[in-house]
Amino acid sequence: MDSRLLIGHAVKVVLVAALAGLYARGRSGRCRAMVAYLWAALLGNALTTFWPDIFFNYAFWLRRQALFDVLKLLIGVEIAVRAFRVFPGARATWERLLAASVVVATTLGFWFLPRDEPSGAFLAQQPQIIAATVWLFTITALVIVHYRIPVDPWHRAILLAFVPYLLVFTTAVTVMKNLGVSIHPAMGFLDSSAYLVLIGYWAQAAWRREESLEISPATRRALQLEGA
Amino acid sequence: MFWVGLVALSTIAVCVLLGRHDRAAVAREWDMMLGGRASEHIRSLERTCELDHLMADDSWQAASQALKADDRPEVVRLLDLSYQVLEAATVNRRVRLRAVRVCARMAAAMAPAPPLLPVHFETTELRTLAGVATLLQHILVSAHERFVVQAHLLALGFVLALRAMRRARGGRDLATALLRFDVAKMDWRSLDEAHVEMVRILLLSAAASPRDVAVARL
Questions:
Q1: What does the pLDDT look like over A30-42, one tens digit per residue?
Q2: Which residue among A50, A103, A160, B181 sits deepest, i.e. has the most Cβ atoms within 10 Å of its Cβ?
């Protein structure tokens, strides 16, 4: 069996384990965009591994990737909104940073817009889209640490694992874009392996028992610490 | 490759920031501020500070007695003892002031801290520092900025007061050394009282944030 197909099946199993963990531990409501992302990943994975003749092609990959890009941004926004919902000062700072980032990212996006390869524009734009997503995660992490926000462990696990994977992914995409078709299988294998590690980490985090916090009920209610 | 570099930098930042983030410790800090035990913490801090003052004052008074008895080695030893007490306490105060600066970010609004005035101090260095603090109070805009700057200046003030005591110890004339030491010690005490006041303001400000309104609505 093709090693990439084998990894694909393994990813599917781990995705099911992660989703089961989220529902079993009552964490599915803590980041709905993440649950949507995992379901989309599971569906996309199932289609490409069970019916590769129909779905294992560039056109389907592009559509799936576009959906993932939107869901990743939604994950970043939802985590920030939930983390800062009882911290107005932190939320205001995050909004200011986000607004500045949107202006800079849009300017840079248009500046680097490829003008000579309309068919590969989406692939060419992938690093920029990922950089914007990762930057969103970074400013969220900065504000969390600066304002001493007791962030949910599941949100922390999402951010902490997603960003290194996105680095691997953007490196793979950039290498493929620069070196051509010959490098695709190797980069695809690297990306699939990193993705398997990512989903494995999330599955472990989804099943992890909630740590008990030794704080008063008043503080727990004030900070809206779910399950703590 | 520019984008890969940007993502790599962001990855390092996120891993370092969130990798070191300790939710339990952060929740405990919030609990200290919002858990309704602020006054208990303040009383405990006041007791600790009072104990440090008592130990330093006691050693200094014993040194004065030794000077009257013309026991010069004992004067030096007791003055050293007094200095060591305040030296250890200075480390503690600076660490607490650093924590105060960090925790100040947790308060949505900050109550104004009483200004450091030159009349509160005796030594030239601390009078100058208090003058700078007064000037900055007029320049800075928000109560939060003033609070953070004042915490910085207090930490610096502790270092200056300690240096004044160290220099006083080195004098040949023990009577003058004792007097100068006492003056620096009084300045140190004024700084210590201001530092307790800052902790009190921080706890009150954090507890009085709009979060309490949110709790009332739950």
A1: 899 999 999 999 9
A2: B181
